[in-house]
Structures are given as C-alpha cells and as structure tokens.
Known about the structure:
By secondary structure, this protein is mostly helical. It has a single domain (3-101), classed as Serine Threonine Protein Phosphatase 5, Tetratricopeptide repeat (Alpha Horseshoe). It has helices at 3-13, 18-30, 34-47, 54-64, 68-84, 88-101. The N and C termini lie far apart (44 Å). The model has no long low-confidence stretch (mean pLDDT 96).
Amino acid sequence: MNRKEFLINELKTDSQDPFNQYLLALEYLKENNRVEAISLFSKIYKSSPNYMPLYYTYAINLIEMQDYHSAKIIINKGIELAISNNKEKVKNELLQLNELYLD
C-alpha cells in the first residue's frame, strides 16, 4: 500500500482528521493534481479553520491557479488566526506571501 492509499484508508476511519486530509492533499500535489488538492484544502478550511499549516499551502496553490481573490481571503484569515494564536512566524510568512504575489 502506498502513502496515498494509506491516507485514503485512514480517512475512511476518521474523515474529518485535518492532518490526514492535509497530507493527502500534498500527495495530490506530488501527482500534479492541483484541483483535487485545492478541493481538500477547501474542505479542511471549512471543517477545521484553526488548522494553521493549511493557510500558506492553500494560498500558494490558489495563486498558482491564478485565483488571486480567494488567495487573498485565505491569507488574511491565516494572518488573523496567527495573530490570535501568537504565531509570529506564521503571520510573517503569510504577510510575505501576500507582499510577493498579491500587493
């Protein structure tokens, strides 16, 4: 069983686990299946909005898909979450991403 199959099986047990959803989305990215990855990122965003690792990866992939409006929303939400959780490094990474691609 490869990693992707393993994660799919794990999600059958707990379909709301954001960590396994995130890892599966990364597997889709390895396969150049950005659409499926973004679909999973969106699912995590809706079901587990406090899952902080999501925001940078989700935003950069939206940027790659030229969905700048959605990327800006995700970056801003991630910055808010980082500030409320005193995650200075995450906040700065998202600010830099915003500055590099969206300002």
